[in-house]
Amino acid sequence: MRDTKSRRRRQSERSGIALIIMVLLIVVFGVIIWLDPMSLMKGSDSGMPWNEEDRIVRSDEEVKQPKEEQPEIFHNLRFRTDAFQNDKLRGRIVVYMLTDGRVRGGWWGTYKTKPEITWEVVQASFKGNIDPSKIYKTEDGEDRSKLYFIAKGKFLILETNWDTSVVRNLKGRIYVTGWLDDEYIAKGKVVLTSDKKSYKEYSWTVAGEKEGFVPDFDGSPFKVLF
Q1: Pair 77, 184: CB distance under 8 Å
Q2: If we measure between CA atoms, which residue out of 84, 70, 78, 109 comes closest to residue 189?
Q3: Which residues pair with 136 in a beta bridge?
């Protein structure tokens, strides 16, 4: 009888401890949600560029220059190339990297996202800067010689459905990010989103060229530059 009572007492104690833990977890989650309702959803998009907007320096602030091991920007550089999504052409992009660390550029093109749907980029420009503080990391370790850059802007796309003859405007944010190596080759991404939930992501790679004239990119597509 004593063994039976002891087992019941131990089971009761374990149940009580489990109940206390559950209550504590509920309280913790409740506090987190009360302080930040979106906090439990941030993990799914933690690597997206809109979570790094704090890296973009205001126009009245000075951009930090590259560290000793990172490529220095002695001349204004132009990166101009095609963007791709799974080997499918997704327009053209031009990125200018200035000696003061500022970044600006534009993206344009006409392509099919589906056999019956055509996208025509009416407007897509962006501005940003380099950020020497971000370190390039992979499964193999760190590479402190690469220089990170990030920029954002707005896009306007004309979508045509040829099956239904429906035409509509798509608006949202464009983000351009990437890494510059010591040979001045940039590998970047173009990310388009209207709601920061769903998005399109395109990739590009090209070596930089010295450039004297740098347009302002005030919202025009600047197709002539491509």
Answers
A1: yes
A2: 84
A3: 143
**Cα dihedral 54, 56, 60, 65 sign:** positive
Contact criterion met (CB below 8 Å) for 122 and 106 = no
Contacts of 144 (CB under 8 A, 6+ apart): 67, 69, 70, 135, 136
Quick: pLDDT tens for 68-91. Answer: 999 999 999 999 999 999 999 999
In terms of Cβ atoms closer than 10 Å to its own Cβ (0-12, 13-18, 19+), residue 136 is middle
CA terminus-to-terminus distance, the chain: 88
Closest by Cα among 80, 28, 35 to 222: 80
Q: What is the DSSP letter of 197?
A: S
Cross-strand partners of 148 = 131, 179
Assign 130 to helix, strand or coil: strand
Domain ranges in the chain?
2-37, 48-225
79 touches 208 (CB < 8 A): yes
**Could you tell me which residue, 11 or 54, shows the higher pLDDT?**
54
